[in-house]
Amino acid sequence: MKSFRGQALSWELKSGVIELALHRAPCNELGSLSLEELEKFVPALANLQLEAHALIIYSEVQSGFSAGADLRELYQRSQALEKLEAIKGVRDFLERMHRVLNLIDAAPLTTIAAVHGVTFGGGFELALACDLIIADKMARFCFPELRLGLIPGFGGIPRLNRDLGNAVVRDLLLTGRSFNATKAQQIGLVSQVVAEGEAVRAARATAAQISKFDRNTAITAKKFIKPIPYPELQREIDVFCELFAQPAVEAGLKKFVESKDAQPYLP
User: Fold this and answer.
1) Residue 151 and residue 147: Cα distance in Å, rounded?
2) For residue 64, how many C-alpha atoms fall within 13 Å in the half-sphere facing its CB?
3) Phi/psi at 58 (nearest 5 deg)?
4) CA 205 → CA 198, 202, 211, distances in Å?
5) Cα separations in angstroms, 90 against 30, 73, 230, 239
6) Using 50, 70 and 90 to split pLDDT, how confident is the model at 266?
7) What HEC string does 55-119 produce?
8) Which of 154, 198, 155 is nearest to 34 (CA)?
9) Mapping DSSP to helix (H, G, I), strand (E, B) and coil, where does residue 169 land?
């Protein structure tokens, strides 16, 4: 399937580049709907990558790349009568999401996240699964999960630690503060910072540059330089589920769901 248009995302193969667009309002929250459509994308990717040299993931939503996990849906899961049933449902969701992101992480073609605006939580983790992050100057990166009594659950800690080291992980995770695009480039998180609204254009130009190189060499180079931290990723799921059982999490999610703010995910 060379093209698809769903409720949360779309993809298309154009001139050797796969473009995956997120378009679920208000800010591409990653819940069951998004996961189901990502699970449709993964087998399509396995076929499309034979004809493509790059994958670009971007958002069509003005507010940003992604605000992260669908916290309203997570709150509904926490309301299950049996806590063990709730934890089992969360674990199943996380394992499915990890399978998708691990396959994107390990895909042989070069993957580029073109981000703008809010790139928080699970959205940040989706970007971290890509080889390169290109950000417009208005992008902001944040792991706000600690305010909910949780840690990132989509693989963010092991991937960020792989790419940048533990000092940056501790800063983002323990303070909950956001980094702007300039700071993100300074610490090596972002490879390019471009003018507002120009991230996708820059990603397409980068993909065109990548097409000039021998495909097999690029695949070998990526595999050498980008190991997948599978044991740490599994441990992250375990820790998330342990924390999800704590009363502080339900209270934090309840506060978020009942918030009257237009964008309650903002710090």
Assistant:
1) 9
2) 27
3) -150, 175
4) 11, 5, 10
5) 13, 10, 19, 12
6) low
7) EEEEECCCCEEECCECHHHHHHHHCCCCHHHHHHHHHHHHHHHHHHHHHHHHCCCEEEEEECEEE
8) 154
9) helix
Here the tokens at position 260 are 């009257």
Helix (H, G, I), strand (E, B) or coil at 30: strand
Q: Confirm if 53 and 218 have CB atoms less than 8 A apart.
A: yes
Band the pLDDT of 40: cuts 50, 70, 90.
very high
Q: Residue 189: what are its φ and ψ, rounded to 5°?
A: -75, -40
Q: DSSP letters along 241-256, please?
A: HHHHTSHHHHHHHHHH
Q: Tens of pLDDT along 227-237?
A: 999 999 999 99
DSSP state of 147: G
d(CA 239, CA 156): 13
All domains in the chain, ordered by first residue = 3-258 (3.90.226.10)
Residue 45 dihedral angles phi and psi, to the nearest 5° = -60, -40
DSSP assignment string, 172-222? HHHH---EEHHHHHHTTS-SEEESTT-HHHHHHHHHHHHTTS-HHHHHHHH
CA distance 253 to 90: 14
Average pLDDT over residues 155-182: 92
Six token digits for residue 16: 């050797």
